[in-house]
Amino acid sequence: MPVIHARPFDFTFERATIGLVVIDMQRDFIEPGGFGASLGNDVSLLQAIIPTTRRLIQGFRDAGLPVIHTRECHRPDLSDLPPAKRDRGSPSMRIGDPGPMGRILIAGEPGADIIPELAPLPGEYVIDKPGKGAFYGTDFGGHLQRLALRQLVFAGVTTEVCVQTTMREANDRGYDGLLATDATESYFPAFRDAAIEMIVAQGGIVGWAAPTDAILEALNA
Ligand code: C5J
After folding, report:
1. Burial of residue 186 (number of CB atoms within 10 Å: 0-12, 13-18, 19+)
2. Considering only CA atoms, which residue is closest to atom 4 of ligand 1?
3. Which of 26, 118, 129, 162 most suits a substitution to test ligand 1, by most atoms within 8 Å of the C-beta?
4. Least crowded by CB within 10 Å, which of 44, 81, 141, 166?
5. Which atom of ligand 1 is nearest to the CA of 24?
């Protein structure tokens, strides 16, 4: 079976059961004037991973393997907005408020869209998720089952919030998850580094981690 050279040890996969999950590479998080920037974050940190993430996505597409995208967003009436997300954050700009790219993190608004550089291809599955994890309140689990996936490579933002939450949810459901360490980022680089260490700690308690080159090398082998 093919392997990706990873931490804490080699990640074994089958071509028939591996897929890529790209978490929340949305304009509201990555572009100036969006939700992330409104919270006072430096979005240029997240912009820096766009080329690597694009290369990773292209590698999966070229290998004929599934690419799944997620978007963190909510219904216009906010009926799916959990209180933790409604009541916390910046008092000056909350989810649902009008922003420079439409209402913040609302489905269908320009800011909730995936950045054009990483736009999904027709036929690629896009999960709109109301939580931080991709399983909560979505058909993500059903889609993974229909595709018969068992190993998931993760990329996207932010490492310690939506990416890590989804990896933990996947791990509890029996999926083997590997994080692409240079295709994920946080507004707080120390949190990205800590999240990666948490994932691989104790013999891979949440999963594996490897750089994009190592992942693509294994896919192309
Ligand atoms: C956050 C995310 N950080 N996609 N969302 O609020 O990680």
Report:
1. buried
2. 162
3. 162
4. 44
5. 4
Ligand 1 centre to CA of 144 (Å) is: 22
Residue ranges covered by each domain of the chain: 3-220
User: How much is the pLDDT for 92?
Assistant: 79
pTM to 2 decimal places: 0.98
Q: What is the DSSP string of the chain?
A: --EE--BSS-EE--GGGEEEEEE--BHHHHSTTSHHHHTT--THHHHTTHHHHHHHHHHHHHTT--EEEEEE-B-TT-TT--HHHHHSS-TTS-TTSEEBTEETTBTTSGGGSBPGGGPPPTT-EEEEESSSSSSTTSSHHHHHHHHT--EEEEEEE-IIIIIHHHHHHHHHTT-EEEEEEEEEE-SSHHHHHHHHHHHHHHHHSS-EEE-HHHHHHHHH-
CA distances from 119 to 58, 125, 142 (A): 11, 11, 23
Q: Which residues are known catalytic residues?
A: 24, 129, 162
Pairing of strands 3-4, 11-12: antiparallel
Per-residue pLDDT of 84-109, as tens digits, reads 888 887 777 889 999 889 999 999 99
Query: Is 125:68 a contact under the CB 8 Å cutoff?
Result: yes
Fold of 3-220: Rossmann fold (3.40.50)
Among 204, 197, 119, CA closest to 160: 197
pLDDT at residue 99, rounded to an integer? 87
User: What is the spatial distance between Cα 97 and Cα 48, in angstroms, rounded to a whole number?
Assistant: 27
